[in-house]
Amino acid sequence: ALSFVALTFSCGSSGPPSTKVGGSAGASAAGASGSAGATGAAGVTGAAGASGVAGNAAGASGAAGASGVAGAGGADAAIDGPSGVAGVGVDAKPSDAPAGDAAPPAGGPLPSKGLLTVYWGQNGWGATHNDQSTWEKPLADTCAAHPEYDVVILSFATQIAHTRNQPSGQSFVPELNFANHCETSYDTQNPFLLKCDDIAAGVRACQAAGKKVLISIGGSTGSAGFQSDDDGKMAATSVWNIFLGGASTIRPFTNATLDGVDLDIEGGGTVGYAAFATALRALMDASGHKYYITGAPQCPYPDAFLGPAAGRALGDAPAAFDFVWVQFYNNYCGYGTPSAFRDAFAQWKTLAGAGNGAGPKIVVGLPATTAAAGSGFVPRATLPALVGDVKDDPAFAGIMLWDASNDQNSAEAGTTYGAFAKSLLK
């Protein structure tokens, strides 16, 4: 599971992507359990946030989180504590955007084969490693050190409908969590949105290096917060204006426009996601620039939240998606049992032919180290066999890794797991 960590100044890490957004500092299913994070300090206007709760399933305990910082840190500290009182205001509107914020990102479309994708933003390695020098590097440094990455996914936007921003319970201004990378509240009206200038600079640097940068919605205990299809449609407009090619006075990544949106839905209901994907795809296509919608289902087919099935996003709107990063770990269908992996891949690849052949390509999701997941790590000696099983399949587009922090600590003889995997895809 892809996990989420809500920590202020802590090593809180996420677990692997079969449960990406865990509780504050929680790990994904079978990933490292959430760190005990000390009580968060007072939010922007709300009460003090409670300490982070544990993630989904039991795993090894995470390292203790450092205490939260007062004021702006409340956006993270209060994830599982009492909500800060949201200020008044209006949701993102398509006017008065700072010049250049909504300029489409440069570069051509991604190839349909040979991709290496990585999730960044939750410092998963930090859950079990106290040495901060080994923690996840800033986004710009990550892209500079890893030319093999084609797609970098920022994790996570934990909720995008009925958020605790302006006004509380009704807002469509997203809540963000990037562990220790960014903890500055956007403003008093939007305490659970973050203002991340360093990440924005990293987005621009990664894109300048030819990489696509997406933002992931959800995580191991996160969900979009949809209560209806109308929620999905309104959230699509908000996400378009705040992160992508639209315009808004609210832009958490100054002078940076992301390349797309990922759905890692591992909790909550199933309503609204097809409407969200359909509406967002229409906005993307009308812009004349290539933007991406992706999903991160778990390998048992169909995924409980995304499908494909009637009433699920991959069932009702498969053509809206470009890629699905199927999580082949923390489940029975990992490559530890090659026949189970092949059977699951055979089911997932039928999705590529959905929507009159316009369905998403399939990317095999793997943990970058044994610490990144409870099960499913594929040793380097075995990885060529996995790639050989699927490389020539037209539906296969590459490999996804959870996560960047684990991959940067995976080097053997000077080569990281990700770089080794990329060499097999060429």
Keywords:
alpha/beta, two-stranded antiparallel sheet
Structure summarized in a few sentences:
By secondary structure, the chain is α/β, with parallel strands linked by helices. The chain has helices at 74-77, 139-145, 197-208, 229-243, 273-286, 313-316, 338-348, 354-357, 383-390, 404-407, 417-425, and strands at 115-120, 151-159, 175-176, 185-187, 190-194, 212-218, 260-264, 292-295, 323-327, 361-367, 396-402.
Word description of this protein:
The protein has eleven helices and eleven strands. The protein has 426 residues and is of the alpha/beta class. The strands form two sheets. An eight-stranded parallel beta barrel has the order 1-2-6-7-8-9-10-11. The longest helix is centred in the middle third of the chain and has 15 residues, at 229-243. The two termini are 27 Å apart. Mean pLDDT is 82; it is low at 4-100.
Topology:
Blueprint: H1 74-77, E1 115-120, H2 139-145, E2 151-159, E3 175-176, E4 185-187, E5 190-194, H3 197-208, E6 212-218, H4 229-243, E7 260-264, H5 273-286, E8 292-295, H6 313-316, E9 323-327, H7 338-348, H8 354-357, E10 361-367, H9 383-390, E11 396-402, H10 404-407, H11 417-425
Parallel strand pairs: 1-2, 1-11, 2-6, 6-7, 7-8, 8-9, 9-10, 10-11
Antiparallel strand pairs: 2-3, 4-5
Helix pairs in contact: 2-3, 4-5
Structural class: alpha/beta
Tell me which oligomeric state these chains represent: single chain
Separation of termini?
27 Å
Strand order of the largest sheet: 1-2-6-7-8-9-10-11
Sheet of most strands: 8 strands, parallel, barrel
Q: How many distinct helices?
A: 11
- Summarize the amount of helix as a percent range: 10-25%
Order of helices and strands: HEHEEEEHEHEHEHEHHEHEHH
Q: Strand fraction band?
A: 5-15%
